[in-house]
Amino acid sequence: MTEDTIDDNRGQMRVIEALIACLLLIGGLSTATYLSRVSVSVKDSSINESGENIFDVLCDSDVVHRIMEGGDFTEAQLKTLVSTLLPPSSVFSVYFGSSMTNETLLNATNMGSDSYSSLNAFSAYGTFTISLPLSQVEYQPVDIILVMDVSGSMAGDKINKAEEAAITFVGQLNMTRDKVGLVSFSDEATLDCPLTNNATKIKSIINNLETGGATNMGGGISIANEEFVTSGRSNATWIMILLSDGKANRPCPHYPQHFDSCPYAQEYAINQSECSKVLDDKGVRIYTIGLGSSADLDEDLLKQIAFDESKYFNAPTAAELSEIYELISKDILLQVRYDVVVIQLYIQGSG
Q: Is residue 162 within 8 Å of residue 318, measured between CB atoms?
């Protein structure tokens, strides 16, 4: 198996994994990730065993979700659950709370006002990261500029599939609320379509891109920045999606000029992306897509340009572009709410 084949397979697996995660989220499934668990054992084996068993039950993701959602898991039910698993004459306290809001979600105890010795006590502490169901951002408009590589290496199937994926992406937006623009880059960069909510217009322009020349990635970002400042709406989230199949090599002041990559062009692209992230005091969220194998791409550069590394996607072949644009559209239009749930358990034995 060749190195390119391995890279392609890894890229395909990344796309598949991302799609599975996205489908789970879109389906409204909550997820719980167990982060930490600390328990203090005691000499009394019955208390120790009971404590571990109870903590296992309390850390079940279904229990955590029911407590987070509230209503169908009461203090009395929690008290009964713990009591039935304890040895006779044992006392306990259990607490569920949100570390994000410091709110008590649920607690229960059978401890009275008496003082208790800690000599025969079991204690445990754990945290969960909870991903609550996805909610659609209904009233947050977006201004999106597609920044597309039209250098000579994009000719043929690549540009055809890129156009098709971009057009499908536009179709997933709400054009009564959202706006899309198009910038293309090769030797130079061009604003092909200013931000518009005319879906027919933007799709037609995307469908008629022509290829040729080198890769002025920084120029594409710069032109997009100018359009955001000129026409971007103050009440909209600004998004840039940059697609390239090569390495930044323009502008290049060297002689002879570089045709693989140019340090000057790379630095220019990074500087322009840094400007994007603080543009007009609100910033631009940048997604980047690398089309092709890692040998043909400057993936480190594309990751640096992106808002963060998770906003970089690799498409080993042009066939994966539609899936990646779909993932990006879901990331833009949907949001996940998170919380960290703290679970504390204390058990006092009878001895």
A: yes
For residue range 197-218, list pLDDT tens digits in order: 999 999 999 999 999 999 999 9
Q: β-strands 104-109, 91-98: how paired? A: antiparallel
Helix axes 263-277, 217-231, angle to 10 degrees: 20
- Answer for the pair 323, 16: CB distance below 8 angstroms, yes or no: no
Residue type, 227: E
From start to end of 63-141, where are the E strands?
A: 91-98, 104-109, 121-131, 135-136
DSSP annotation string for 199-262: HHHHHHHHTT----S---HHHHHHHHHHHHHHH--TTSEEEEEEEESS----S--SSSPPSS--
**216-262 pLDDT, tens digit each:** 999 999 999 999 999 999 989 999 999 999 999 999 999 899 988 99
**CA-based end-to-end distance of the chain:** 66
The secondary element (H helix, E strand) that includes residue 333 is helix 321-333
* Residue 138 backbone dihedrals phi, psi, to 5 degrees: -75, -35
Residue 280 tokens read as: 């007009």
Distances, alpha carbon 174 to alpha carbons 197, 231, 237, 249, in Å? 9, 18, 14, 36
For residue 97, the cross-strand partners are 104, 342
Residues of the chain where predicted confidence (pLDDT) is lower than 50: 1, 5-6, 9, 12-13, 16-32, 134-138
User: Which domains are assigned to the chain?
Assistant: 31-134+338-348 (no CATH), 137-334 (3.40.50.410)
How far apart CA 285 and CA 283 sit, in angstroms, is 7
Q: Among candidates 202, 192, 282, which has minimal Cα distance to 238?
A: 282
Task: Please give the Cα distance from 40 to 52 (Å, whole number).
Answer: 10
Closest CA to 261 of 244, 242, 274: 244
pTM above 0.70, yes or no: no
> Percentage of residues in the chain with pLDDT exceeding 90?
47
DSSP 129-159: EEEPPPEE--S--EEEEEEEE-SGGGTTHHH
